[in-house]
Design goal:
- By secondary structure, the protein is mainly β.
- The protein contains 1 helix and 7 strands; from the N terminus they run ββαβββββ.
- The protein has a 5-stranded mixed β-barrel with strand order 3-4-5-7-6. Strands 1-2 form a two-stranded antiparallel sheet.
- The protein is elongated, with a radius of gyration of 19 Å.
Length: 158
């Protein structure tokens, strides 16, 4: 338990009572750890089951349910703490010219510590309750992807 105590406040999972005589949560070799299956065909990562991190906004080990939209996007920034920016590209039809124009949206997404994400990866995200002022999505799956050149200006349709 000592290695996860790197924040100012005491880090513990809300669903686990540390002084319990009986065990309600799932017990592993490292101690008691709460984790769940989010459903919708997404597997719980091995790091979420056997890891030691504490993240109350993680869909696998925290108090967040996935409901609503499931989206895919390209990771363009990983500079924030546990938050990444994904880019979603789409085509918008212009009736006057009978053609399409390229458009994009940047979406801030909460990324649990159980995922190792780099710029250029393709992530599948699920909608959840608002986690902060701008974050409304959570990473569910990461697909490693190699992009040659700058990630920021790539146009990729999914």
């Amino acid at each position: 338990m000592a290695e996860i105590q790197n924040e100012k406040s005491f880090q513990k999972q809300d669903a686990v009572f540390l002084n319990s005589k009986k065990l309600l949560a799932k017990k592993s070799s490292k101690g008691i750890r709460y984790w769940k299956n989010v459903g919708l065909g997404f597997k719980t990562p091995r790091e979420a089951i056997s890891g030691t991190y504490v993240d109350k906004k993680c869909p696998f080990t925290g108090n967040v349910s996935i409901r609503g939209r499931i989206l895919k996007g390209l990771v363009i920034s990983t500079k924030m703490h546990r938050t990444i920016i994904i880019r979603r590209d789409y085509l918008h039809y212009i009736k006057k010219y009978n053609r399409f124009e390229k458009r994009h949206r940047n979406i801030p997404v909460h990324c649990s510590p159980c995922f190792r994400v780099k710029e250029g990866d393709i992530v599948t995200v699920g909608q959840c309750r608002p986690l902060s002022k701008t974050v409304r999505f959570n990473v569910l799956k990461v697909t490693p992807h190699e992009i040659i050149g700058s990630v920021k200006k790539q146009f990729i349709l999914f």
